[in-house]
């Protein structure tokens, strides 16, 4: 039976008072007077579901090598992150706000006097511990050693507390998750909240992020053994605004325009200009290059790759994630200049395609998405397809679920952890191939099954698999951080099409559209586009830099100034 995703009681979410200021001792902490009704406990726990607690590592300009906004740079990719940074300060404050409030709610649950049944009290306690563990997880992965506490702090204590080693905090996080696993139900019959499986999955994630592969593998296995989750049959459909429920969603925050819980992060930037958007937020060329061909080989090894038709014969997730153009497979009769039907209008950035076909009217229309017509059309010719559908046509908001963790992640966490432990067996290959089988389902190709048991080869495969599977989901940044690849992947350049005069003379007329030559990939799957620039087939949009200090974010200067015991992370 299809179960509902982890829906939150929207109306309860909306009545929680908002707050903009936060300290280790939040000014808007819940009342210390004993709760006298079940609804008070529920309203207090709903603090944990507020969207800002679950914001992933993304920004309008992109913080990883999969996402860019024209030629703008986020401070992460510019290498200029400092202790005055507003985002680093806001995430620090938000997480401490959530922890402080949930500790207060937890105390109310532990001291409640018959307001809740024993079962209700255990479930609510598990829910509170789930949130506390998740918020501490974010803090230690981003800031390292941080102030840690399990009881409410006084103002004086907040000014004096020092930092606790992150490995010590990690053990406490495991304890919180274990309590949640013990006390939370596998599922709910009505409104959906955090579950046993969610606690297992999030425990597996933090263990993976911290390099604790044994714990990660065990927690992922426990989640798999619940038999409660399954991969959504259609990869692209999973991310659309109309997909409200799925057996793949382990923990997510649903959105609804009617109830005021929605996505509103400059959505026109994602849309094609022909659809009334700006085409400004783009997948990178590096991401496009990373998808394997349908023979299972990378583009610089596969005889199937055609740089003139870079979407041809590629992993189906490539076409579900980036709006494709040109020929897609042998025999389709399409030219490199042809586009694809995206939301009933043809999309192609080809400089000579001044008009495109409108499937709604059956007529040709002005092509706003070629730089021959519009100077600020996509700088690299690429646009996001994943998450975007017809409901975004004239948007200020969107209703796509905010996915925190899904079953594909659990499968790949399990596989990666077992690979790092060098405990490679049939279950590891099965986990990887389940994800790949779903990716190829419904396409004209079959999954080129992974069969190798070589640890080095499998490490490459599972890392590239994560990139293909989770593109535009806000997970790539932390993958680069924990693999210690950020200095390589985020230091260099971002690339785009040559200026319009050059691209026609040097690329289109010699019949070299789109890339002109195949970019080479290194041992970590990172593409090199410098030869295209040197040959005049592309241009550098900007220079990126990731200094080693940025593997950890800075302690906010405002807090460090108030409490000298906090110190500062190295390099800031």
Shape verdict: globular
Beta-strand fraction estimate: 5-15%
Low-confidence stretches: 1-23
The chain-level structural class is: mainly alpha
Largest sheet: 2 strands, antiparallel
Q: How do the strands line up in the largest sheet?
A: 1-3
Provide a count of the helices: 19
Mean pLDDT: 93
Spatial gap, N to C terminus: 52 Å
Give the fraction of residues assigned to helices. 25-40%
Global Rg: 24 Å
Secondary structure tally: strands? 12
Description of the structure:
- It is a single chain.
- The chain has a two-stranded antiparallel sheet with strand order 1-3.
- It is built from 19 helices and 12 strands.
- With 572 residues, it is mainly alpha-helical.
- 36% of the residues lie in helices and 8% in strands.
- Helix 4 (86-110) packs antiparallel against helix 5 (118-143), helix 8 (196-209) runs antiparallel to helix 9 and helix 9 runs antiparallel to helix 12.
- The longest helix has 26 residues, at 118-143.
- Mean pLDDT is 93; it is low at 1-23.
- It is found in: Cell outer membrane.
- This is RagB/SusD family nutrient uptake outer membrane protein.
- It holds the Pfam family SusD_RagB.
- It comes from Polaribacter batillariae.
- Residues 47-208 form the SusD-like N-terminal domain.
